[in-house]
Design goal:
The chain has about 450 residues and is of the alpha/beta class. Helices cover about 40% and strands about 15% of the residues. The strands form 4 sheets. It has a 7-stranded mixed beta sheet, with helices on both faces. It has a 4-stranded parallel beta sheet with strand order 8-7-6-9, with helices on both faces. The protein binds pyridoxal-5'-phosphate.
Length: about 450
């Protein structure tokens, strides 16, 4: 087993190997995904339509489907140097515990204070807002990782940061809120009385505990009604997948050093940004016929956008103030049950990932149940040492399942998954798991039908 010894536990890259460009998968997609639409007119949105909501440069990135690589500004690269390159780890101990011949690798993005990959895009978005001379940005956060990442980036650049935090998350994770406030962000529980959308929702139901979709509506309204502010979003958008492409570029550089090409690439999928990032160079290979990794997107059974959703034009928020995006969705009025993987509780999915899945380039989507996910998290924590975020544990669960299949067939497949974050702020979830009180609320077909009823009627002209 010579090869076993030559691959280290951690494959290190140097600072110089941090990518200099973001990879734009849209330039290589065979069928590009359909454009964002104006919900009023049904027309494709152009740069000038997006500019009241998003920063100018980010609008360009959002609409860019021609440039394969886009240079990363020096100042953003300098920020990346504080916590990148992120580790690529061979999960020897997990392999041993499973008794599998498979080789399991994971790219760990939790090594910064925000505890997740979201910082990769937060610094880029804050940078372009600053460059435009804006006062600040508004956003929403569910589980809190995105809000924390954005607060960090804004503090670094001296920008104002307003975060609409889903009320249930704010109450379950008060310490997340304090991290954001420590970095100088203003945190507002959503639904709030500060926006028209929030007021309307509270009028209907004062006990509404919020959802990501509602918080998005509020943050968009706050950005568009205040001078010098724009809205930023931590997932779903093309620009976010663009920024996250550094994960996959680093992953490929590291594995290439040992001649390893993943057979299977696994990522949890909330809005699709970490999987979009991890897949980047490997998806490029696949689209260009130069590689054939098998991609699996993992989602919670309680919020099954890819596995049970519809591929349709939909709003990206509950208040229906955003443009329409063509994606796998459960409907903007679908409110997922309170599961513990907060970062995976969004009813829609990145239009890029949606189209790639629709076209078969993402081979499979798999929905997994919460207690199985935490069982996998526990095994991973015990063997590999890192306490994973519940979101990340969805990918771990499927990596373990695939490794166990290899045990049956005797195949030594290379499995790569994204370990997107740490779970220190998710101890309420671990507590429920340890106490044996964890349940999984899987929506019935009727629940899903109710969500689908909210899909806007849009003419699609192919
Ligand atoms: C936000 C988040 C996710 C899910 O978001 P994607 O955009 O699908 O990547 C997964 N893991 C962690 C730790 C997160 O914070």
């Amino acid at each position: 087993m010579k090869e076993e010894q030559t691959i280290p536990y951690k494959i290190n890259l140097s600072e110089e190997e941090i990518p200099t460009h973001w990879y734009n998968v849209r330039a290589d997609m065979k069928t590009d995904h359909r454009p964002l639409l104006n919900p009023g007119t049904g027309e494709a949105l152009k740069q000038e339509d997006l500019e009241p909501i998003f920063c100018e440069e980010l609008c360009k990135q959002e609409l860019n489907d021609t440039d394969q690589y886009i240079e990363i500004p020096e100042e953003i690269r300098d920020f990346y140097k504080m916590y990148r390159p992120s580790p690529m780890v061979r999960a020897y101990n997990l392999e041993k515990a499973l008794g599998t011949p498979a080789h399991i690798y994971y790219k760990f993005e939790g090594g910064n204070t925000s505890g997740s990959h979201k910082l990769n895009s937060a610094i880029a978005q804050a940078y372009f807002a600053k460059q435009q001379g804006l006062k600040g940005v508004t956003t929403e956060t569910g589980a809190g990782q995105w809000g924390t990442a954005l607060a960090m980036a804004c503090a670094y650049l001296g920008l104002d940061c307003k975060v609409y935090m889903v009320k249930i998350s704010s109450q379950q994770k008060p310490y997340r809120r304090e991290v954001m406030r420590t970095y100088g962000a203003e945190v507002i529980e959503s639904p709030s009385e500060e926006t028209e959308v929030g007021k309307k929702i509270l009028e209907k139901n004062p006990d509404n505990m919020g959802s990501l979709g509602t918080a998005i509506s509020e943050a968009v309204e706050a950005a568009t009604t205040q001078e010098g502010y724009r809205y930023v979003l931590g997932s779903v958008l093309n620009q976010v997948l663009l920024h996250q492409s550094i994960i996959g570029q680093e992953a490929k550089k590291a594995l290439d050093k040992y001649g390893v090409y993943p057979d299977i690439i696994i990522g949890c999928a909330g809005g699709g940004s970490n999987l979009g990032g991890l897949m980047s160079e490997y998806m490029k290979d696949k689209l260009n016929g130069e590689g054939n990794a098998y991609f699996i997107a993992v989602e919670p059974a309680s919020c099954p956008s890819l596995t049970r959703g519809k591929f349709a034009y939909d709003f990206c928020d509950t208040g229906n103030v955003t443009p329409l995006a063509m994606m796998y969705t459960l409907g903007s009025q679908f409110i997922p049950s309170k599961n513990h993987a907060g970062g995976l509780r969004f009813d829609g999915m990145s239009p890029i990932l949606s189209q790639l899945y629709h076209d078969g380039y993402i081979d499979e989507a798999r929905a997994v149940e919460q207690s199985d996910v935490f069982e996998a998290a526990e095994l991973f924590a015990k063997t590999e040492g890192t306490l994973p975020a519940p979101e990340s544990a969805h990918a771990i669960k499927v990596a373990i399942d695939e490794a166990l299949k290899c045990k049956e067939t005797g195949e030594a497949k290379n499995i790569l998954f994204g370990l997107t974050g740490t779970g220190y702020f998710d101890m309420a979830a671990y507590q429920a798991y340890n106490d044996g009180t964890m349940t999984d609320e899987i929506p019935t077909d009727e629940d899903l039908e109710r969500g689908f009823e909210s899909l806007p009627k849009v003419e699609i002209n192919d």
